Amino acid sequence: MGTPSKEELNQALKCAINMREHDEDPNFIAKSLLNHHYRLKKTEHVIDVVKLYLRTGCATTEHAVMIKALEAYDSIDHDAADYSDFGLD
């Protein structure tokens, strides 16, 4: 399976948002895509801050940023997902 291009992903996300807005998602495909994309972005952020933490020799400031990112990821199921930050133009 190939990775979608940025344009393909943006088109799919726009379509999914439109489906959800018009309550036309009988099999929850749009909901699933949006949720997985949201989780992926949060996961990528955690990976980035962990890499920074390790590169800086486990510095205190980066440790705090890492803990905050992990807590934000842990709270995903408790928060209402904000789909406004998909980077769609």
Structure description:
This protein is mostly helical. The chain has one domain. It is 65% helix and 0% strand. It has helices at 6-21, 29-55, 60-74. α1 (6-21) packs across α2 (29-55) and α2 runs antiparallel to α3 (60-74). The longest helix is centred in the middle third of the chain and has 27 residues, at 29-55. It is elongated. The chain starts with 5 loop residues before the first helix and ends in a 15-residue tail after the last helix. 6% of the residues are buried.
Helix content: 55-70%
Strand proportion: under 5%
Please outline the major beta sheet.
none
Mean pLDDT: 89
Question: What are the key terms here?
Answer:
89 residues, mainly alpha, 3 helices, elongated
Give the topology, please.
Blueprint: H1 6-21, H2 29-55, H3 60-74
Q: Quick summary of this structure?
A:
This protein has 89 residues and is an all-alpha fold. It has helices at 6-21, 29-55, 60-74. The model has no long low-confidence stretch (mean pLDDT 89).
